[in-house]
Amino acid sequence: MEKVNVLVIGGGASGLQAAISAKTFYPEKSVVVIRQEEKMLVPCGIPYILGSLENSDKNILPDKLLINVGVDIKIGEVTALNIKDKECLLSDGQKIYFEKLIIATGSVPTKPKWLKGNDLENVFTIPKNKVYLDKMYSKLKGLKKVITIGAGFIGVEVSDEMNKAGWDVTLLEIEPYILNKAFDKEFGVKAEELLTNRGVKVITNKGVKEIIGKNGKVDHIVLTNGETLEADAVILSMGYAPNTELAKKSGIELNELGFIKTCEYMRVNNCSTDIFAVGDCAEKRDFLTRKLNATMLASTACAEARIAGMNVYELSPCKTFSGTIAIYDTAIGDIAFGTAGITEEKAISEKFNIISGSFTGMDKHPGTLPNTHEQTVKLIVAADCGMIIGGEVCGGSSVGELTNLIGFLIQNRTNIKTLLAAQIGTHPLLTGSPAGYPLIKAAEVIAKKLKNIR
């Protein structure tokens, strides 16, 4: 029987990061990652293999990230876990004994059982599986009309990339506007306008009732209002479910949403202190509301993975996961969108007393410089204490790092007055003007509103 100090099941972003962190903080320990796939994909790059990247071979997580720090990789399928005796059984009969276990089995795309026709040929999902996606891409090459169902980040990015690559793409969303779970209406509407202008047919406020086939293949779909749309292929982007079947069979406790129950150190609840779970399979709570949350993001997963790796042998109260802030970014053409924390609509529905403020400026100064974009920043602040609890950004490529900054402000419970006193470094080619920095100007808008209500 092979014996290892730290065994990580799953080779995606969270498994990779957990292994690297464990080996970095405990270099004397042996760390092994076991995964089913020969090659792992960069999760957030998957939509781009259908357009910008042209194939999945340009979207590979390099094994050298693990190998260079001394982590071993084993290709195999785990079929059973004996938590009590700390044994892992593989499909080929091998057994691995572990001291510490980190479960990072990720998530799988959902196919709603109520949706008739979801088993027809040319109905696809978007898993994090290179073999499946290569076969899908090969089939799609001979087809023309594609309907994407679900306008979250994956649905929007897949639709935009396929449209750019020459497919006739329709994006269907049952909600009033796209990206509605992550953005307030003004940002979702702007994203929808951009997609439409680029050639994607966007249909909102209508759902799918059934997928109809001919000779076993997709022919058209029927909407909830009875309307029909021709289709050669349908891509279901209707969410993901935690991949926790192995954990469940092993007696590991799941929460009501199907995620592995964990504590703030990412330790599994009903097991010994030697078992951890991270990433899409692990329990999430919202940073602000503390409610159970089904957010699945590589950024959240990697934060959890670092925490598990750092705490795997020795706990530190400074290294805990305090809930998902849900930091998202995407881009449609050269216009980027970012969000962190809670939206205004969600904050109101949760009964937070909030004030919001927006400012639109430029991401370079002067605004006549080449490749300059408008940059809109919206902040959501708790009215009683001035704490920043949410933010949304639209603009050029600098949106990504600006969204990360807003996430950092939220995580550190920053007050709007602290932000107004912050020293912001600027440069004409890189940022807005120090006198017109959109993040600070949005804070000023809120400060004025706060002053008026006190």
From the alpha carbons, calculate the radius of gyration and give it in angstroms. 23 Å
Strand content: 25-35%
Supply the number of helical segments. 11
What is the number of strand segments? 24
Measured as a percent range, the helix fraction is: 10-25%
Overall domain count: 3
Query: For the terminal residues, how far apart are their CA atoms?
Result: 69 Å
CATH C-level name of the largest domain = Alpha Beta
- Low-confidence runs: none
Mean pLDDT: 96
The CATH topology name of the largest domain reads FAD/NAD(P)-binding domain
Shape: globular
Protein structure class: alpha/beta
- Annotated CATH homologous superfamily of the largest domain: FAD/NAD(P)-binding domain
The CATH architecture category of the largest domain equals 3-Layer(bba) Sandwich
Main sheet overview: 7 strands, mixed
Please outline what is shown here:
The chain is of the alpha/beta class. The protein is built from eleven helices and 24 strands. Helix 5 (185-197) links the parallel strand 10 and strand 11 (201-204).
